């Protein structure tokens, strides 16, 4: 599964925001958490196939918790559209987005 770490917009409420695509479940997923909590604030797309079917829907679930970089939608769509053609390493790529640039 690909994982895109985003910059949280309010560290008091979330210090980790991840969105990505799980090719085995054919679903996008989101996870918003804070290190002071045992359970994630938001965790959707990790239990059943096709739980989140679009990149736009995944972004909508995290946009109140993180800064959404301009290239994220395209990156998530590519994760989905090109999963079958990618190597194992490419399908499991981790990307860290700052507010201004991508840090691979």
Topology:
Elements lengths: L2 E4 L9 E7 L4 E7 L8 E3 L10 H8 L9 H10 L6 H4 L2 E4 L4 E2 L1
In short:
With 104 residues, the protein is an alpha+beta fold.
Through-space gap between termini: 15 Å
Strand content: 25-35%
The rounded Rg comes to 13 Å
Reported for the largest beta sheet, the result is:
6 strands, mixed
**Percent in helix:** 10-25%
Biased composition (Basic and acidic residues): 80-93
Biased composition (Basic residues): 94-104
Region (Disordered): 80-104
List keywords for this structure.
104 residues, alpha+beta, 3 helices
Describe this structure in words.
- With 104 residues, the protein is α+β, with helices and mostly antiparallel strands.
- The chain has one domain (3-103).
- Helices cover 21% and strands 26% of the residues.
- The protein is built from three helices and six strands, in the order ββββαααββ.
- Strands 4-3-2-1-5-6 form a six-stranded mixed beta sheet, covered by helices on one side.
- A hairpin with a 4-residue loop joins strand 5 and strand 6 (102-103).
